[in-house]
Design a protein that fits this description.
The protein is α+β, with helices and mostly antiparallel strands. It has 2 domains: 7-125, no CATH class; 132-213, no CATH class. The protein is built from 8 helices and 6 strands; from the N terminus they run αββββββααααααα.
């Protein structure tokens, strides 16, 4: 049976968790056709390889009996025209509007999981992002791209730009995990047939690259 999720109630719980962590935020409403709120934590901005990375928390909800509720803490990368996100690097939860124990448990866990993700942002985020600047060899980059869960056309685009970088910061002599993510990130946008599809695929991209490089 369908069960509503009141967005304002979730916002209240989330904002209390943020305030309890002593964080300031900038809250933005993104879309008119659904409840879509973004909390930007600009005090935690981190620059790496010329990119400004902004941690954020997003809440997406629509009680239309078609769209699941979603909450995620991740980061935005601001470079060129690219605004794709790495969503579940920190925390991502999807809740189907269906009455039952699973619904109740997930909704109940939101403040605790938000608090944990905010603690990570304040204590580990910067070090983890900066660890992506470690240099890698071309052969390793090729192997990582080949093992990513992205379409073959995205892999071909990313491999092409290993040899012909879009930006000087991503040149082969300066190749690192962050530059590799930049490359695949933009290849997803170019080859995924729409931003929505690219964002969905990109949710785990940064963490997948880190795992494959280990």
């Amino acid at each position: 049976m369908f069960k509503r999720i009141e967005t304002e109630s979730v916002l209240s719980v989330v904002e209390k968790a943020i305030e309890d962590q002593g964080l300031s935020f900038r809250k933005v409403s993104r879309r008119a056709d659904m409840d879509y709120y973004v909390y930007h934590f600009e005090d935690l901005n981190t620059e790496i390889n010329g990119d400004m990375v902004t941690p954020s928390l997003r809440i997406i909800n629509n009680n239309d009996q078609k769209t699941a509720f979603r909450i995620m803490t991740g980061c935005l990368r601001w470079v060129c025209m690219n605004g794709l996100s790495a969503g579940d690097l920190f925390y991502s939860q999807r809740i189907i509007h269906r009455e039952g124990q699973t619904f109740d448990d997930k909704l109940h866990d939101i403040p605790f999981r938000v608090a944990a993700s905010l603690d990570y942002l304040q204590n580990h985020f910067k070090d983890d992002i900066e660890s992506m600047s470690q240099t890698i060899e071309l052969d390793q980059a090729i192997q990582i791209i080949g093992n990513l869960k992205v379409p073959d056309k995205v892999k071909r685009q990313a491999l092409y730009h290993l040899y012909y970088p879009r930006r000087s910061e991503d040149a082969r002599h300066n190749l690192n995990l962050w530059g590799l993510w930049n490359n695949v990130n933009e290849s997803l946008r170019e080859k995924s047939g729409g931003t929505k599809a690219a964002i969905k695929t990109n949710d785990q991209l940064l963490s997948d690259i880190k795992i494959l490089a280990a």
